[in-house]
Each structure stands twice: as C-alpha cells, then as structure tokens.
Design a protein that fits this description.
Strand content: 5-15%
Number of domains: 2
Structural class: mainly alpha
CATH topology of the largest domain: Outer Surface Protein A, domain 3
Shape: globular
CATH architecture of the largest domain: Alpha-Beta Complex
Order of helices and strands: HHHHHHHHEEHHEEHHE
Radius of gyration: 23 Å
Largest sheet: 3 strands, antiparallel
Number of helices: 12
CATH class of the largest domain: Alpha Beta
Helix content: 40-55%
Length: about 250
C-alpha cells in the first residue's frame, strides 16, 4: 500500500471528522484510535458551532441553545468547510433548517431568519461600491433602453419572505419586548440589507420598490412591468444598483 500524500491525508481526515468512511492511516500501537479521533471531532464540531452562533444570534435566540446546537451539529456534519477560514463558515444554514420538518413545523419562519442573518454576514464583509454611473446611463441610446440590465453590488441583499422577519430581527436585536409583542409574524415582508457609511442597515421595502428591485435583478428593463419603472430613479439613488450592462436581445 502506497503512502498517501498530504492532500489525500487531508481528505481522509476530513471524512473522519464527519463520521464518513475513511482510510486514515493510524500509527501502530496507538491505543483506542477512534477515541483519539473523537477528541478531534468534538473540537471540530464545537469550533464550527461557535462560528454559527456568532453568525446566527437571532436564530439561536428563537430556538434556544439546546435546539440550536443540535441543528448546528447536523449542519456541521453535513456541510463540510470549503476553505480553511472558519470565520467564513455558515452558508446554507437555512437549507439545513428546511430539511428538518420538526423545526419547520414549530418555527416556520426560522429558515428565512437564517437567510437574513447570512445576508447580513455577507453584506458586512462586502466592499462599499462606487456610485452608480448615471452619466454613462444617460449616454445609452433610447432604442437600447430595453437591453439595460441593472446590477446589484455585494453590499446589497434583498430577501422576500412570507413572514415579518425584518421587524422580528430588529426587535430581538434591540431586546425590545414592546415591539416583539406587536409583531404579526405572518405579515409578508421584503427585507433590504444594505451596507452604508454607518454600517449594515436593515429595512423593509414597500411593495412597489420590492417588485421593481426583484424584477430588475432577474431581467433587463425591457421585460420589467412599465408601471414599476416610475420608481426606478429613487431605487437607483438609494444605492440598490451599482452598475449596468447591455444584454443581447
């Protein structure tokens, strides 16, 4: 049997940490190798669980430590790290929640809250974009207007939800019991997460702006409902879009 190289050893160790079958070579005479591996597993799961706690404090507050840690363990073991930076770990936690019917049934808005908190994490790390190139947009010929595709920067995220996750996030973050008691959680919202000079700002969009932004993110302006385009100037001035391209028609 050939000696595995470093990459192979790393892959085998990753599989061992995730309780997957592995061919990790263990030194002769090592007592209880599985017990030694379990020490690494426990530390590995604990470290990444702490990362998830930092990224998802409101999700943690909604379900409590015991439930959160159980879901976090499930996520850690089913979602291997894709890079060596533990601080960037945590994407897809909302999908893990959605895969657990007992959690979804009990707290149906929890996955959307997790999606919101991941957006907050990503937006907080994004660079501040340059102002929208209004002068370049003004130079686009009228006949090419329909081909304009607006682009949002990484410092902006929009989350449509069937639940009032934006106001719930704010109330829990502020520890505002009065606001919490007044929330209608079944009120749909579209939440805007935006990095500004003062930090990451969470707000809710009105229906027209939400429809316009989502439509512009998916389609060129020629395919957007004309009745929504009257709100375009305000949305651009609000920093929701940072650039544009012309797409083939």
């Amino acid at each position: 049997m050939s000696t595995p190289n470093l990459a192979e050893l790393q892959h085998q160790f990753r599989d061992a940490l995730h309780y997957q079958p592995h061919d990790l070579p263990l030194g002769e005479g090592v007592a209880e190798p599985e017990a030694l591996l379990q020490v690494y597993r426990n530390n590995f799961v604990m470290t990444l669980t702490e990362c998830l706690e930092a990224v998802y404090p409101v999700v943690n507050a909604l379900v409590g430590d015991e439930c959160f840690q159980a879901v976090a363990r499930h996520h850690v073991l089913s979602h291997p790290m894709t890079d060596a930076c533990a601080e960037s770990y945590g994407g897809g936690f909302n999908d893990t929640i959605m895969s657990l019917p007992n959690i979804v049934e009990t707290v149906p808005y929890l996955a959307d809250m997790a999606a919101l908190e991941w957006h907050i994490q990503c937006v907080s790390r994004a660079p501040t974009p340059a102002p929208f190139p209004m002068e370049m947009l003004a130079q686009v010929e009228d006949e090419a207007f329909a081909a304009i595709q607006l682009q949002s920067p990484a410092s902006v995220a929009v989350l449509p939800s069937d639940y009032a996750v934006g106001v719930l996030w704010q109330a829990i973050s502020d520890n505002d019991e009065t606001a919490l008691s007044q929330i209608d959680i079944n009120q749909p919202q579209t939440v805007l997460v935006q990095k500004q000079a003062e930090g990451v700002v969470i707000s809710t969009l009105n229906e027209e702006d939400a429809q316009l932004i989502l439509a512009c993110q998916q389609s060129p302006l020629g395919d957007v409902d004309p009745t929504l385009l009257q709100h375009l100037s305000g949305v651009i001035q609000g920093g929701i879009f940072s650039d544009f391209v012309l797409v083939a028609q």
